[in-house]
Fold:
Amino acid sequence: MAAIDRTAYPRLGTQLTAKELDADYALGDEERLFVRRHAHGDAGRLSLAILLKTRHRLGYFVALSDVPDRIRRHVAGMLGLSEQTPLVDEVGRPATAHRYRDVIRDWLGSRPFSHGGRKIVIGVVPRAAQTMSDPADLISASVGALIKERIELPAYSTLDRLVGSLRQEIHEELYAGIGAALNESQRSLLDALLDQPAGAQPNTFSRLKQNPGPPTLKHLREWTERLAELDAILDPRPLLAGIPHTKVRQFAAEAAALETGDLRDVCRPGRRHTLLLCLLHQTQSETRDQLVEMFIRRLRRTRSKAMERLIEMQANQREIEEALLGVLGQVLQHASTDGDDRDLGRNVRQLLAERGGVDVLDAQFHAVTAFHNDNYLPLMWPIHSVHRSALFRLLDLLQLASSTRDMRS
Structure:
């Protein structure tokens, strides 16, 4: 049974503020006139007014004995009655209470649940089940549909049982459809997931529920092999075509919550195979997502390490940069003081020779300029080469596609 507080099924509040009382239980002029026209005596008028306001607020009639004293006193004050005014005894005077409900229905233009309410719920739940799986959500969708059609809500237990029954029928149809689509070989493959191998090794079903470790190279390789193993079992996508994604996730979560023995004890093969198939599909999808996340984190880490090495190299090359700038400064000094080009050339060559020669200075220049403008790309290869083969193995298993509709290169 779905918890009522998780649904949109309206309930009487017990801790109402004065503002909430005024908003939900204040009587307008037309409502006062309606009460005076259809009820006699203080008890009758107070009872009719409370039934009117609670029906308008909740969408169904409540028992007068269940109405909190705070609401009773507030409505009595709106009618100018004493706070001690009693309510009609619905047990002793059932005809009076029944008449009050009828006149309220006529005034609101509503009808009881028995007049078409079940048909509306039967029509709403299958449509809502295409995108919803939680019983509480299906009950909320039914409540909204009934209120829209001005049909009184039934007791919560009645609505919960009806929605639960319809949900079970929908699931049975799905189980039967998927079971019929499986051939004998596919059924055997799914049942083999529950087989216990020799020794203490967990079976395939238990390994489907394992979680990935940190995005280390070791776990990246392990999870890549896991995806290859999962893909080799069976491709569930053609068999689950047309099944809402929410249903697949729900069945997968249901299977993951069971132990091997519990799932093996499921008598209906269609249900057992559906749960296993959905769990396999969900595990394949999640493993791909996890591997993509590992891949992205690995590349980010490679980039981060390359940038760290760049910063270290730039710090270490600062002396070389200063020395090269010193050579340039002396060349400029010779250019400004030496009048003859031959003297300038001779002095510059002598200066370059004193600083290690052209080849040494040229190597220093290229080493410094190679990483100008924060160019860390050349430093990524030594880091990337360690796990290059593992990443290519992963890319062979993944089908990469653009996340947008823009197909331009």
In short: The chain has 19 helices and no strands.
